[in-house]
Structure formats: structure tokens, C-alpha cells
Amino acid sequence: MKKSDLPLCVDLDGTLIRGDLFFECLLFVLRRRPWKLLLLPLWWFQSRLRAKHKLADLCDRSVVEPPPPMQQDLVDFIKAERQDGRSIHLVSASMQSLVEPLAAATGLFDEVSASETSNLKSREKAEFLAARYPDGFAYAGNSKDDLAVWSRCKEAISVNSSPTVQRTAKNQQIEFVRHFGQPPNQFKHLLITFRPSGLLKNLLIFLPLFTIGAAGAGYLLQFAIGFILLTAATSAAYLFNDLIDLPEDRLDPVRSNRPLAAGFVTVSFALLTVVLLVAFSLILAPVISWWFAATIFGYLLFSALYSVVLQHSPTTRRVARIFFPVLRVVAGATIVLPL
Fold first, then answer.
1. d(CA 141, CA 146)
2. What average pLDDT does range 259-286 have in this prediction?
């Protein structure tokens, strides 16, 4: 393919990195000062830009140093183009205070532009780049928000774009000169994050069933539902623990291959999954009994405390290895015992 002399402008979230700095900041605050997140709806109601500003102000450079997992084939392309003398410009809707140190840590970019007084996204980004490069520019992006920029650039580059985005681009007569990567199947990688071998421990919920003999036949449906709800709760707990441990996992040579640490499951997708699983288990648990619901709530509460505060103590880790299996048995007991 013929070399291009056009300035290469690269999007950050979902393009250069496998994720979004907004959710990286959200996770940082969740780990350090979770009570601050109670103000997030208020900030968001005022404006998306204000919410970004407030979250960024609560973070330090460890959010971006080292950078989150990057799209390696795109990184290799940028390095080759820069070596040939091409101007490379990182343009992001994330906050300038975080994008600049990230760009500096990569050493890939000649220029950096990001949100500060305005949200540099979609049409605003398109207008900014068209004014900055009146003779034309190339742009690498990934999402529907980049359609407005692709329509204004001379060379459009697709990175991990979904089939829907690519079809919409085609309908708008946008032709891509290059494609990098493809969206990972996050559902498939989630199964690994849920630790299927660990979920076998949930079979302990059936232990009380064997204590009541023939009478247990009448409880089979309740136990089956209870097993599903307990599995949802424990899956949420495993995923939440991986989110809390994410910065350390990314630096570990072995744990960095886990789906979350490697970027095959994004922080935003993982957070949404945790919320949905917790809601599913807690809303339906009272169908079995309020005692069962209380046990599920207790499991979720203790696992959250363990992930955020208690796991760093050897003593509490030993206690947890006993306490979590016991809670599974107690959950089964609440089904058959008239508490």
C-alpha cells in the first residue's frame, strides 16, 4: 500500500487502548474513595464533561502509567509510520490531564489533544481536526462516535469496529483504507473470569437436601432456582474481585493474561455485568425465602468487603476460605429449614 503523508490522528478509547479512560477512572475511585461515586449522578446531570472532570480530578497518574492494554497491531503501525517521518496526533474525548501522561508513557505521539473546556468527541472532534488540518488528515477510530470524523477525513482507518459501525460507515460512503483488529467476544471471555471450576463449589448448596431424605423431592425446584441465583451472586463476586485487583494483575506476568487484565473484557462491560448479576440474584432471591435473600446479600456484602479491604491480610484470607463455603451450605439450609 502506498505510503501516506497525511497527518495520522488516532482516537484513544477503544482504538489505541482496549477500554475507556472514563471507566478506568471510575474503577480507580471505586478502589480508593468509593463514597465519592454517590456524587456521580449529580455531576453527570450537570454535564458529561463535568463528570469526566470530577472523576479525573480524583485520580492520579497510576490510571495511565503504565497504560491500559493497547491494540498492538495499531501500535506497530504507528511506530512504523512515525519512523518514516509521519506526524502522529492523539485526539481523545478523555480528559487532557490523563491523556497527556498516557501519551508521554507510550512515546508514540508528536501532538496530543483531549477534552478540557469542551468534550472533544464526534462532531466537535471532526470540526477541531478539520480546522487543525485544512489540507486533510487520516483518522483511526472504532465507534459510531467516530463516524462524524471519518466523514471529514481523507483516509479512514477502522480499529476493532463492530459490524454495525462498519455497515453504517458503508451506508455513509465512508471507505476504510485499513482495518485493525476486531471486537473480542466478551461473553466468551467472561466465562473464564467467572472461574467455572470455582463455581462448582456452589454445589454445596445441595448438601442440606440430603439431610431430609425422601422429603427432599418437594424442594428440588427451589434448590435448582437457589443454585442459579447463588451462581449469579458468586460470579458477580469473582468478577468484582478481578476488577479491584486489575492494576496489580496487569503488572503480573501470569495474571496479566486474564481476560480483564489483557483487555479482552473491558472495565465498562465487567462493571455492567456485575450490576446485572447482583440485581438478578437479589431481586429473585425472596421468591425462595427472605432468609435465603439475606444469605445471598450477606455473601455479596462480605465478598465486596473482602475484595476492597480484607484480602490483603493472611488471617482474613484463611477465614474467607472457610466462611464462603459455609455460606453456600447455609443458603441451602434456608430453603429446607423453617427459620
1. 6
2. 92
